[in-house]
From TrEMBL:
CDD domains: PP2Cc. Its cofactor is Mg(2+); Mn(2+). Pfam families: PP2C. Belongs to the PP2C family. Residues 49-328 form the PPM-type phosphatase domain. Its EC number is 3.1.3.16. InterPro entries: PP2C, PP2C_BS, PPM-type-like_dom_sf, PPM-type_phosphatase-like_dom. This is protein-serine/threonine phosphatase.
Length: 355
């Protein structure tokens, strides 16, 4: 049995949040805590059901996430749908927190501005513009706080893709970088058997990383280890997402969204097999637990012992993990209206002190 004192030590330093003035009218977003794990086993979205879970490993949870279901536009007549975002912060939570504060609002605003009677769905152009608008807002924030908070420039947020990672370890990504920077033979560098952009970072696209976007941020007070010795005249990293469109059909059953903390321990097929073979209720927590069991096994320890390790130290065993599983009910997808409550869940919200 875990003592009361130990329970105080491992209490999570974050909590999910409900945003908006009409939060009391939104769907049920209540979840449960189990040590550093927060989970909501089952809920409803416009097109079916969902399950969600988040496990913390770092001192501050760097993953942020959100599930927004209802209108996808700031106009009342906007299209209905479900938006899922999982934002994996690197080196801190600030950029990830900024994205979940601004990206969906930008999507709704831009969608409303481009609404026409012929275009009533959600276009890739709207999503792309929302990413770039969010990036510009973040860089504006970096510039405003540059002298007093240089650490802002180091935060990065990596968007979760359904196709492939924007990571220099992928050969096609390295080739893309070389084509974009033909005059820079050091655009990707192999260091300690790991490919990195300019020898510094693995991701090739992000919102944030201002020191690799604008030369004005690649100088003091930025730490010397992040400064490039040679000047650059165009962004080394880009913020544009890779957008793929997949039309849903009646055979589609579910979507798994997760930060890379899950995929370090589970393959795509392993995750799909688990979701397909287990009850829907609690399936996100099931995926998280499976990943943690694998992390414990790799360190030759028991899962029950891993659960007792506090955040910060826990990062030596696994990364933050966020999982959202969307189940797709074909009869709901075919409907043109939604009569349920609006839903807004944000994982990795406001921190609160241990008690």
């Amino acid at each position: 049995m875990v003592s009361t004192a130990l329970m105080r030590i491992v209490s999570p330093c974050w909590k999910p949040s409900v945003e908006g003035e009409n939060s009391s009218e939104r769907g049920d977003v209540s979840g449960r805590f189990d040590g550093l794990l927060w989970y909501k086993d089952s809920g409803r979205h416009v097109n079916g059901e969902f399950s969600m879970a988040v496990i913390q490993a770092n001192n501050l949870l760097e993953d942020h996430s959100q599930l927004e279901s209802g209108s996808m536009s700031s106009l009342e007549s906007g299209p209905l749908g479900t938006f899922v975002g999982i934002y994996d912060g690197h080196g801190g939570p600030e950029a990830a927190r900024f994205i979940y504060d601004r990206l969906f609002d930008n999507i709704k605003t831009i969608r409303a501005a481009e609404f026409t009677s012929e275009n009533q769905g959600m276009s890739a152009d709207v999503i792309n513009k929302a990413f770039l608008a969010t990036e510009e807002e973040f860089l504006t924030l970096v510039k405003r706080q540059w002298l007093s908070r240089q650490e802002k420039a180091l935060k990065v947020i990596k968007a979760v893709q359904l196709s492939y990672e924007h990571n220099a370890s992928v050969e096609s990504v390295r080739e893309e970088l070389r084509l974009l920077h033909p005059d820079d033979p050091q655009i990707v560098v192999l260091r300690h058997k790991v490919w990195r952009v300019k020898g510094l970072i693995q991701v090739s696209r992000s919102i944030g990383d201002a020191y690799l976007k604008k030369a004005e941020f690649n100088r003091e007070p930025l730490l010397s280890k992040f400064r490039l010795p040679e000047p650059f005249h165009k962004p080394i990293l880009k913020a544009e997402p890779t957008i793929s469109v997949q039309k849903l059909c009646s055979e589609d059953q579910f979507l798994i969204f997760a930060s890379d903390g899950l995929w370090e321990h589970l393959s795509n097929q392993e995750a799909v097999d688990i979701v397909q073979s287990c009850p829907r209720n609690g399936i996100a927590r099931k995926l998280v637990k499976t990943a943690l069991c694998d992390a414990a096994k790799k360190r030759e320890m028991r899962y029950s012992d891993l659960k007792k390790i506090d955040r910060g130290v826990r990062r030596h065993f696994h990364d933050d993990i966020t999982v959202i599983v969307l189940f797709l009910d074909s009869h709901l997808i075919s409907r043109s209206s939604w009569h349920g409550p609006l839903l807004s869940i944000r994982g990795g919200g406001d921190n609160f002190a241990n008690t």
